[in-house]
Amino acid sequence: MDREYMELARLVSGYVNGSLSEADAAILQERASRDPFVRRLLQAYQDRGAAAETLGALDTIPLDADWEAILSKRRARRKTQLMRAWAGMAAAMLLVVAAAWLMMRTASDDTLIADTRYGHRNDVLPGGSKAVLTLSDGKQVLLNGGEEGRLDDASAVIDLQEGMLVYRGANQQTPDTPRHRIEVPVGGTFHLVLGDGTKIWINADSKLDFPAAFAAHERRVAIQGEAYFEIAEDAARPFIVEADRLQIKALGTAFNVNGHARNGQVKTILTEGKLRISNGKREELIQPGFALVSKADEMRVEAADLEEALAWKEGYFYFNHKSMGEILDELARWYGVEVVGTVAWDRKKYVGGIKRSATLGGVCALLADLSGRRFAIEGKKLIID
Amino acid sequence: MDKADWDIFVKGLYHRYYLRMCEFAYRIVACRETARDIVQDAFVVVLENRLRSGDDPDALKSYLYSTVKHAALNRVRHLHIASRVHKAHETDEAEEAGILEAMVHAEIVGELHAALESLPTGCANVCKMAYLEGRKNQEIADTLGVSINTIKTQKQRGIALLRNKLSPQSFAWILPFLLP
After folding, report:
1. CB neighbours of residue A382 within 10 Å
2. In the predicted model, what is the mean pLDDT of residues A263-281?
3. Do domains A128-310 and A315-384 have the same CATH topology?
4. Partner-chain contact A1 B62, CB within 8 Å
5. Within B30-179, where are the H helices?
6. Are the C-beta atoms of A310 and A331 separated by less than 8 Å?
7. First to last CA, chain B
8. For a disulfide at A275, which of A97, A140, A196, A286, Cβ 3.0-4.6 Å?
């Protein structure tokens, strides 16, 4: 409240109460003479009836009961404040949980970007170098391509380089040599150099099991999914890749094993050297430029397109007489999307190549042109109709 | 000042200012019950916020007026309670003047009431009945169960005491009620 008003109130009430000094009374009188409002105030108390009514009304107010009311209001308020504090804490915790959830969501969805070119709800970035390495003691190391450093496991020293692991050190497998596993998720690839110098490229949605150090008589690994192998030459120790029920024995060889086909077949394409592939019942000898297609107990050898074996690790999709279903499966693995739609694809086969560094929107633009279908991206869904 | 001392201090302020604050709020919201509710809330705020308002009684009175004013205006504006002040004045300036007037009236009746309260109990009772309720000497004597002469004596005492407490101006209009 304005100080001036307070002062006027003091003067007027003092005047009415007779507690005003002569100097103050003079000030009030002077103000009353020029300010009709002050005059009106003073005149109001000439009306005895109204003033008496006011005083009477004030006298009916129960002072003790109202003081109790104030104290009980304070108690209620404190209770409310306590509840508010609790609610605040609960809200804060909820916020933390929500933020964590959002971060996890964002972490899994950080491949989503705005689409400014193709008219989809959003676009999806291509996959990249990522994998989870599981050491013999069960410890897991997340590899997102950016790590540098050195891991020291019981039987191997592993260098982490940009987007790849290089095994060094012990080359002798003891009876209880620990086994390592690399899992490459959807939307990833990973490159690995084993202790013997063998290079392995692991494609998206694939697993490789291998010993931290190889035995003296053989080198044995197991693959699920797709990987390309460049086997280091070592005549004394054949390199054996287990894929599904196949044993692929190589000597100084480069080949691609792909077990991703929906129909359960495993296709091994040999690019260099020689392969001896056994399914436990039969054995086939493969020459470079040929592929072995295995399904259940059947094995057949066919002429192969080497591009198909090499393309993915060189950074592009390569489709040579692939159905749209097969193409979409590969896209789903690389972009980490779910393909939605009940389109019955015809038997048409497609030929072409697409850079794996393209965004999903770019790939879809191409496929829409080729197939005459409409492709739409919504979040992590690829919708086709 | 610790918490218990503060409560006692605020209770002192309460006895000094509660009624005039009620009067002030009433002149804005035009409802005695609502006015009490608003002023009670203001005292709760003072009880809870001792550091903010300090312990200077003048500052606290000012703070009380300000708190009650805002709460009362909020009631008038948001709860659409009929208000003499709000209805009579449309502009903020006029409203401000109305608030000032209400405050000055509250101060005056507050001081007046305090002066009556300070009379000795028997004397004050008689004076209140006569002055506030406009009752005749015989009625008061019947109510209190005393003789009419006792009433007259108490009134005389009241006049003598009030003469020292109230200004000649206010005494002039309180006197007719007290004379036999």
Report:
1. 24
2. 89
3. no
4. yes
5. 32-48, 50-53, 57-78, 84-88, 92-117, 121-131, 137-144, 148-165, 168-178
6. no
7. 49
8. A286
Q: Kindly report the pTM of this predicted structure.
A: 0.49
Domain A128-310, CATH number (from 2.60.120.1440, 3.40.50.2000, 3.90.226.10, 3.10.50.30):
2.60.120.1440
Q: Does A68 contact B at CB distance below 8 Å?
A: no
CA distance A219 to A235: 11
CB contact under 8 A, B132 and A69: no
Backbone angles phi, psi at B104, to 5 degrees: -65, -40
C-beta atoms of B47 and A67 within 8 A:
no
CATH topology of domain A315-384: Phage tail protein beta-alpha-beta fold (3.55.50)
Looking at the predicted structure, is the pLDDT value of residue A207 above 90? yes
Nearest-CB residue to A8 (from B32, B40, B104): B104
Name which of B11, B44, B166 is nearest A17 (Cβ-Cβ): B166
A207 touching B (Cβ < 8 Å): no
Closest CB from B40, B132, B167 relative to A52: B132
**pLDDT score of A69:** 92
Question: Would you give the end-to-end CA distance of chain A in angstroms?
Answer: 72
Summarised one tens digit per residue, pLDDT across range A128-185 is 888 888 887 778 888 876 667 777 776 677 888 777 888 886 555 566 677 889 999 8
B111 with A6: Cβ contact below 8 A: no
- ipTM of the predicted structure? 0.72
Domain map of chain A by residue range?
Answer: 3-110, 128-310, 315-384
